[in-house]
Amino acid sequence: MPRYKIKEHIVYMHMKEFSIQFFQLSKEKVRCPLIPEVIRFGKELKGKIGIISVRYGKRMLSILSPTLLDEITEDEFVEVIDYDPVKNSLMFIGEHQPDMLLAVHWIVLRAREDINIIVHLYDGKDILNPLERAKKILSSVKGDSYIFNDKNEVLFLGKSFVEIIERIGRN
Predict the structure, then answer these.
(1) CB-based contacts of 143: which residues, under 8 Å, 6+ apart?
(2) Per-residue pLDDT tens for 83-109?
(3) Integer angstrom CA distances of residue 46 from 37, 84, 142
(4) Which residues pair with 78 in a beta bridge?
């Protein structure tokens, strides 16, 4: 039986006495067919800073880190393959290490099958334990609630980009 070796790149990120392991399975550029649609959607969010994450089969396509959403390019994406909240390790494909906030997005997308897209307007400060953060978000977006609003961040959740635009327009 052939043996396959996975190249892994492990990075520990420490914030407020909390660390997460990143396993970079491949350094290749992400070529997901959803990238052009995410870039078009980002252009509609003029002047907003954040991260967009989209369900892509069993994976998640995301922008690397908080950025001006109307200026995102093809080089700013990663595919998250898996996140293990027990081991606190995130596996990804992409040229650069993603923000640890993507672990929160992964948990939210796994917990809510009715959500395909997360637009997280966020200034890049004050991240807590991803599992605790996801619990807080999920406890406040029960049922038909698709907006989480807290201090310096707002999450818009939805099935489609059209739903997200409508929710952002109302807020």
Answers:
(1) none
(2) 999 899 999 999 999 988 899 999 999
(3) 16, 34, 29
(4) 62
